[in-house]
Amino acid sequence: MRLDVLLIARHPGLSRRRAKEVIEKGQVRLAGATVHEPGLEVAEGAEVDWDQNRPARRVARLDLVRLHEDEHLLIIDKPAGLLTVPTPGGGDDEDTALGRVEEYVKRLRPRAAFAARVHRLDRETSGALAFALSAQARAGLIDAFRRHAIDRRYLALVAGEPAADGGTIDAPIRDEWKGGRRGIAQEGEDASDAVTHWRVVERLRGATLVEVRLETGRQHQIRAHLGHLGHPVFGDPIYGKAKAPRLMLHAARLGLRHPVSGEPVRVDSPLPPDFLRPLNRVRAGVAPGLPVDPRRNRPRRVPAAK
Description:
Layout: H1 3-10, H2 16-24, E1 28-30, E2 33-34, E3 48-50, E4 65-69, E5 73-78, H3 97-108, E6 116-117, E7 126-132, H4 135-146, E8 151-159, E9 166-170, E10 173-174, E11 191-192, E12 195-204, E13 207-214, H5 221-229, E14 249-257, E15 264-268, H6 273-283, E16 292-293, E17 298-299
Parallel strand pairs: 7-14
Antiparallel strand pairs: 1-2, 1-3, 4-5, 5-7, 6-7, 8-13, 8-14, 9-12, 10-11, 12-13, 14-15, 16-17
């Protein structure tokens, strides 16, 4: 059930509005960790502690959607176009998800600010992105990623229509960058193991919406693997030529064991409008990168496959 509903069940005199307020203030702990989400799904027998005397947290703003937040872990919904971390030589004023989170935490906990990235999303990839808010959480998350104990699922709109309904791509990714790309390793090249599982979600004319589950997490892994499969992601200028207004890749789910409490955490990120608009154009039989024809005030159709 929802955390606020469980809290009311444990404290019958508590109103729904008050329950939401005390949770957001940081006066409620779940399995020993402070949580701030009234709608968090919890088990009926969960260990929940409400301390009215616990100091309320400072008010701080973060201009990114928060999918999960507690004192150790923050998961945001990163928009396409925002860097995860600064680029080499990018300068102190470079806008990044990490920078925004660091600024938020400094205002929230001026005396004990801690924010660290534990994985990354490419600049043009949107979706769920986790940050550690304590050294203990950072160590636990790094270990979980190292053991591949994280459920990472992506949605991608790819060019063409795969013959199969799903499969596994087991192809090492080259360690060295060549021409701005990783790519599949050739014999004799230094490489890292990379395994990607995929399945068809929706078949469209000339395109397919697929769900991708990562077993490993190499940089550009999904993009390189789907390109290698012959079905590159729309909007990917490096591993394919199918045009779209943005890279049509979205981190839709992140599931893990909480690095401190051990409780299961799972967040789902809905497809953002800048992904849905091109996807709906394809559903309507329109190329995602083509503009509306102003003379007819309607989208231009994709020619039927011969």
